[in-house]
UniProtKB/TrEMBL annotation:
Matching Gene3D superfamilies: 3.30.70.100
Pfam families: EthD
Protein name in UniProt: EthD domain-containing protein
One GO molecular-function entry: oxidoreductase activity
Lineage, broadest ranks: Eukaryota, Fungi, Dikarya, Ascomycota, Pezizomycotina
Organism: Capronia epimyces CBS 606.96
Length: 140
């Protein structure tokens, strides 16, 4: 069974704030903002926090495939994933005074919060280590 199947995954599609370069956005998110999330993440039991940086170079990797299908790579500048055991803990974290007074203003330095989008759900492993996954936490 894949390691994260029993966890809830909250994914945020993040767009950079107008007026900052892609390089500034990726640097700030990775090196400044990311570490600021540590204390609250520990306090509220976040199991993992991951960032996926969708740089122009990363988007270019899919150019041939997306053009062949007439589709485009998602326009976001990156995604953030938080794995939690309980959605209430995640919601409590985002309502915490420190999050509201410190994290949100920091997000405003580099993110376009008006365009922020979320998904929430569970992982379902299909292939791991070149093998089909047959044991699961839940069935669909």
């Amino acid at each position: 069974m894949p390691a994260n199947e029993d966890l809830i995954r909250v994914t945020a599609f993040i767009y950079r704030k107008p007026g900052i370069s892609e390089a500034e956005f990726h640097h700030y998110w990775a090196e400044i903002h990311g570490p600021k999330m540590l204390e609250l993440s520990v306090k509220y039991g976040v199991v993992e926090y991951r960032q996926y940086h969708t740089t122009p170079q990363a988007k270019a990797m899919l150019d041939a495939a997306t053009k062949a299908t007439g589709k485009e790579c998602h326009a976001c500048d990156g995604t953030a994933e938080m794995f939690v055991k309980d959605i209430k803990a995640y919601l409590s974290m985002t309502a915490d005074r420190e999050f509201v007074e410190a994290i949100v203003p920091d997000q405003l330095r580099f993110m376009d919060l008006d365009r922020l989008e979320f998904t929430v759900g569970y992982e379902y492993g299909v292939i791991a280590g070149s093998e089909r996954v047959t044991e699961h936490t839940r069935r669909y």
